[in-house]
Amino acid sequence: MGTVVEAANKGVNGSITEKNPTVVFVLGGPGSGKGTQCANIVEHFGYTHLSAGDLLRAEIKSGSENGTMIQNMIKEGKIVPSEVTIKLLQRAMQESGNDKFLIDGFPRNEENRAAFENVTGIEPAFVLFFDCPEEEMERRLLSRNQGREDDNIETIRKRFNVFLESSLPVINYYDGKAKVRKIDAARPVQDIFETVKAIFAPKNEKAD
Ligand SMILES: Nc1ncnc2c1ncn2[C@@H]1O[C@H](COP(=O)(O)OP(=O)(O)OP(=O)(O)O)[C@@H](O)[C@H]1O
Ligand SMILES: Nc1ccn([C@@H]2O[C@H](COP(=O)(O)O)[C@@H](O)[C@H]2O)c(=O)n1
Ligand SMILES: [Mg+2]
Question: What is the pTM of this model?
Fold first, then answer.
């Protein structure tokens, strides 16, 4: 028997096949702690973490023909066309050999959402939404120190606007389908993870 998450995402034949992977979308404002919590979920529950932002940054570094366009969009806090991001996600899913995915920072707008559904036919089992006040997210981003070109106050403000205008409607869409698990992300990392753990079935924890 699988977890509650897997049960929610079983295909018509009742089995989890390559065609029916378990997908959890991980959403929240910039700096809400999505990546931090995904690392904990991977360790405890064996998911593969795919951060759309990380995949786009890797694409820039790879010297891809889309690199300059992606770099400019990220600097402006804009959303890269879905076609590009979805191809990267699909490739990473195939290469992982896993069938359980945390897709972090995607879908970021309605175009992302509809295109992913049309191209892959995948519906998320549920959506984790890390809810955090802007002032706290701003503090975290300005002290992240990972050399990200978009962690400066000008781009951060643009990213906040994009989140409010384009990403929140996606969260509301999934809320209308009772798929959103909203988490208070303005707490210490470990406290948040206790809440996250309760959402995934404890029996699926990796053995030590
Ligand atoms: N609960 C927390 N309390 C304090 N700091 C945190 C917390 N969670 C994460 N951080 C720190 O805040 C910064 C942003 O966290 P993280 O990279 O996980 O956010 P994110 O949602 O993935 O951001 P982005 O959307 O920009 O990728 C990091 O430096 C991280 O160590
Ligand atoms: N679906 C997405 C996700 C991200 N981007 C771009 O990457 C930037 C950084 O994303 P993080 O999740 O790592 O914060 C983001 O501001 C966008 O420019 C995207 O286009 N589409
Ligand atoms: Mg992140």
Answer: 0.92
Q: Break the chain into its structural domains and give their ranges.
A: 22-198
ipTM: 0.99
Q: Whose CA is nearest to atom 25 of ligand 1?
A: 30
Contact indicator for 45, 128 with CB cutoff of 8 Å: no
Which residues form the pocket of ligand 2, taking CB atoms under 6 Å from any ligand atom? 30, 51-53, 56, 73-74, 77-80, 85, 105-106, 108, 112, 150, 159
Please state which CATH number belongs to domain 22-198: 3.40.50.300
Q: Which ligand is nearest to the CA of 151?
A: 1
